[in-house]
Specification:
Length: about 180
């Protein structure tokens, strides 16, 4: 109730106290993970995810959330491992594949990242995040022409003036400054 009233800090404090009991049901831990992740409080979510996965190692949702959380705290190898396991179980999960692509990119495994980004785009042609990822891979591979092409396509898919549009435009301007 506190969270719904906009009292996020109070809700997180209550949650933290509740999680200190010896036995905390898995459903409560899963709800806590959702709350922590939605609040950007990544570190407290990780031990909860690990406890859920200790009981249920093939829980695709927990594996995906753990992969995402590890990405956020720059534990890229852990992210890649969790997301790869999730994709073994559910190979069609585009979000896990997209996040794994970003983990591969951060690990400088550009060919693997490119393959995952391309797979996401094959199934979801308007996934501008995958296009942005392909642009980053192209930049790492010194293929400015491909990077510009991917970023220009990204701009067509996002709302003009949005934060994503500004980020993409800035990246594009770094590669191909506007002509004066």
């Amino acid at each position: 109730a506190r969270f719904k009233d906009g009292q996020r800090d109070a809700a997180l404090e209550t949650l933290s106290k509740a999680l200190q009991h010896e036995f905390v049901p898995k459903t409560f831990r899963a709800a806590a993970v959702d709350l922590y992740l939605s609040n950007g409080s990544i570190p407290p979510a990780l031990p909860l995810l690990d406890s859920i996965l200790a009981e249920e190692p093939d829980n695709v949702m927990a594996l995906g959330q753990r992969g995402f959380a590890c990405l956020q705290v720059e534990r890229f190898e852990d992210a890649q491992a969790s997301l790869s396991r999730a994709l073994e179980i559910d190979p069609k999960n585009a979000l896990n594949r997209l996040n794994r692509a970003f983990a591969f990119d951060r690990l400088k495994q550009y060919d693997a990242a490119q393959l995952d980004f391309e797979t996401v785009l094959h199934d979801n042609p308007n996934a501008y995040q995958a296009l942005f990822g392909l642009a980053e891979v192209a930049i790492a591979k010194k293929d400015t022409t491909a990077a510009i092409r991917h970023l220009e396509r990204c701009l067509q898919l996002v709302t003009p003036g949005s934060a994503d549009h500004q980020k993409i435009k800035a990246r594009l301007d770094e590669l191909a400054p506007p002509k004066k």
